[in-house]
Amino acid sequence: MKVIKKKPPRVFKVGIKNNISILDCARIYLRQNEQVTFMTKGGREYDVTAKEWGFYATPSLNSRLKKQGFKTALVKNTQGRYFVMLAEKDKRKEFAEYLKTEKMKISGWLDE
Question: What is the mean pLDDT of residues 5-20?
Answer without folding.
Answer: 95
